[in-house]
Amino acid sequence: VNNCLQLVIQTSSITDKNKPFEFRINKEQSSFHNRLLQHDLEKNYSGRQDNTNFGNSSSITSFPVLQRTAEEKILNSDRLTLERQKLTVCPIIDGEDHLRLLNFQHNFITRIQNISNLQHLVFLDLYDNQIEEISGLSTLRSLRVLLLGKNRLKKISNLENLINLDVLDLHGNQITKIENINHLGELRVLNLARNLLTIVENINGLDSLTELNLRHNQVYSIKDVDTLPCLQRLFLSFNNISSFEDILCLADSSSLSDITLDGNPIAQETWYKHTVLHHMMQLRQLDMKRITEEERRMASVAVRKEEERKRESHKQTLLKEKKRLTICNIAHQWEIQQNRVAFVASLNTDKDNEPCKINGSAAYVFPEESRSLDTILSSAVQGLSVLESHLVEVEGDTLYLYGSGALECLDRNWSVQTAATIVTVSFMFIEFDEIVQVLTKLKTKFPNSVHLKFKETNLVALQQFNALAQVNRIEQLTVDPQGNPVVSFTLWKYYVLFRLNHFNLQKINGIEVTQNDIVMAERLFGILAYVASSELPHYRMLSLLGESRRKQFHYLLEGKGKKSGIGNEESSDNRAGGESTARAMLNYSTKDFQMENLEEIKERRTLCQTYVENLVKEAADINMKNESLQKLWPQMFIELVRDAVVGIRDKNSYMKLCLQRIADQKE
């Protein structure tokens, strides 16, 4: 104990029974024990130490017996100092039952014994010995000061009967746990410095404790200190306390006025002093320095700022955790979707797993197969349904889109400033066929986007890269191998360079594109554009091209710009500053679009078939009528001639009849 301690022990002296004696411990002295021994009681007796004689008892030969002269007993009847006597055991002190102060400092004693008869002992000093266990004190009920510093103790024990103990010094031992002291309600000073303590606990019940020394331990957590109603001074220097939460209970102590935390990791933090002063307003000293009102005010301001920073940090942490959980949920849903597709595909291809009839009875169906597909696959994400199924995030110059629902964000009203900052667009856990449908929106929404990233987008075929030609501009393309089997193709990069040649790609998957790569791409796939443009019917080609492309196409067909095949065609288009006409023939239709086309083709086929059938039927009827007419025409012609001859036989009658018909028609 290094601060000023005044310990007054009310007891009787030799000359005056009503006069108390006291000893003071001053701050300037070097150690607790030297200060205690500086008292006049020790000084008066120190000159007579050499006169103390030890003899051997006839009955007990294993312990030395203390013998003092009558004169020494009269001069120092209640005190005895035996320091630095090279004692290995406690001697038998016979006839000294009236002793109140006993000093065994700086010896080699290994066990406390032979003092049980000193029932009036008030002060016992066993500093700097080799004691391994506290024992032999059960009868010393009057003991007020027990000094056992610098020994070999590993445990606090056998103090049950020392209920009047006022000072307990156990520093410099090997104690790992505070225990068995809750009954010491009169204890005012407890010194446990330089031990092996890691947690401060089990100190409730020390209602009179005013000073607790825990310097030079391994303490990282403190508990129960707020239950000590009289604690004023707490010394925690040179421990392992790293956060204020580890000593939070100190803030609830109303009596604590002095505390030291220097030498701990927490003392290196910038917020250390401000936080401690803000939460412990009753402190008068911190790390042995007096606290001013200005420091308290500054501490309050600093703590408020720190709390705001922590709240913001906590908010960001929660947002990051929510983002992580949302992405996990999206990934689970994506996995379920892929498993469902694979499962359905396997059912369509593997007919052997279907239930079949054997001898008129149905084959056994496993319970797992009888359950619905959704039930089987949805069980993996049970409990995550409350999370979002998609996520849109702008981080720096990158727009992250997770889940197919995130594509709807492209229809938002983006601010001009935000849209202009987007350089990279990242797609994750979205079917590429769904991405194709919104690629054209990237032109208008994010005019400065030059980098596209694809991860878990189900890119499986080279022709899917044809769809990227719809984008306004691409300088970098990143296709993650995870969830994109097309990356396993050896020539996929060369196909991208060939098909998107008009973009002048700079990087693919982070690797610079060289001129040799472009030449190799043309060698590998150049003929493909020629085949696509030459084999496609003209009407179909015109339907795929825009107005400007149609003019170029007609120009090529007329032979005005075509001298050396497809190469000159592409040079003409390159002068126009866009995609070559031949490459434009290599397009990509999504599965949904193909399905729609199939339905349309079926309808057209049905309509054409019906129309042709009607035409055939009409032609057959006409042919039948024509054949009938050919058969009947000779007879009909004869009858017509005969009727005409008969009618004009009477010329006058025939004329009148004709005139009458003409008159009737005029009327």
Automatic annotation (TrEMBL):
InterPro entries: Cilia_flagella_integrity, Leu-rich_rpt, Leu-rich_rpt_4, Leu-rich_rpt_typical-subtyp, LRR_dom_sf. SUPFAM superfamilies: L domain-like (SSF52058). SMART domains: LRR_SD22, LRR_TYP. The keyword Repeat applies. Coiled coil: none annotated. Pfam families: LRR_4, LRR_9. The keyword Repeat applies. Keywords: Leucine-rich repeat, Repeat. This is LRC49 protein. It comes from Eudromia elegans. The lineage of its organism: Eukaryota, Metazoa, Chordata, Craniata, Vertebrata. The gene is Lrrc49.
